[in-house]
Write a structure and sequence with these properties.
single chain; 3 domains; 4 helices; Elongation Factor Tu (Ef-tu), domain 3; globular; six-stranded antiparallel beta barrel; seven-stranded antiparallel β-sheet
Length: about 220
């Protein structure tokens, strides 16, 4: 698990194609690797990867065909910048929201415009993910925990403050950029509970739309 608070910007040293999947060699820049061991998880642009080798200034990770099909990692090139976050511990401040590192799909930046010292982004989500995105809800983009400002069908708006622009790769985004999206965990599990038997569950959950409405969860 992760928090969506980016700890460092890394750089891709080398991408190796290996029998249909890929191995990434990443320079971690300012990320503190003290205490990181082989097998530990590090989020790279929001994708949870396992460190299979460590060096003084970075780590190596394998990217499966599944991850390549759902994320933007397959388009990375040597010299490319990536967001990095180590897995959270029980003492890690939860400054963002709970993020699994399991990307749901890719979105596309449709518009970027200046707004004082911030920038405004308009992002298009895949149709199958749009229902999980709500105004003032949380979303993770390339590993960064963000608050959704507005929603219009598959499109949603974000306001990116100067600190986030400086500490993440979001300053590199342009119209047409592909980004990794992970929707809020709570939204996904709530949908599963509401569907109940329609999803093949034979045991009643006791949770329905009427139950949620009666208890103030729906308006």
């Amino acid at each position: 698990m992760f928090t969506g608070i980016i700890q460092a910007i890394g750089e891709i040293v080398r991408c190796e194609q290996r029998g249909g999947d890929m191995r990434l060699h990443i320079n971690t820049g300012g990320l503190d690797l003290e205490g990181v061991q082989l097998g530990d998880s590090i989020a790279v642009n929001g994708v949870c990867l396992t460190a299979v080798a460590l060096s003084g200034g970075g780590f190596v990770a394998d990217v499966s065909r599944e991850s390549l099909s759902l994320t933007s990692l397959g388009s990375l090139k040597s010299g490319g910048r990536v967001n990095l976050e180590k897995a959270l511990t029980l003492s890690t401040p939860l400054g963002g929201h709970l993020v699994s590192g399991h990307v749901d799909g890719m979105g596309r930046i449709l518009e970027r415009k200046e707004d004082a010292r911030s920038i405004r982004l308009r992002v298009e989500a895949p149709a199958e993910l749009a229902r999980y995105i709500a105004p003032k809800g949380s979303i993770c983009i390339d590993g960064t925990s963000l608050t959704v400002n507005s929603v219009d069908g598959r499109l949603f708006g974000l306001n990116i403050v100067p600190h986030t622009l400086q500490k993440t790769i979001m300053g590199d985004y342009r119209s047409g950029s592909s980004v990794n999206l992970e929707v809020d965990l709570i939204a996904r599990y709530l949908e599963r509970l509401l569907l109940g038997e329609k999803m093949g569950c034979t045991t009643a959950t006791g949770i329905s739309r009427s139950f949620l409405a009666e208890n103030g969860f729906l308006k």
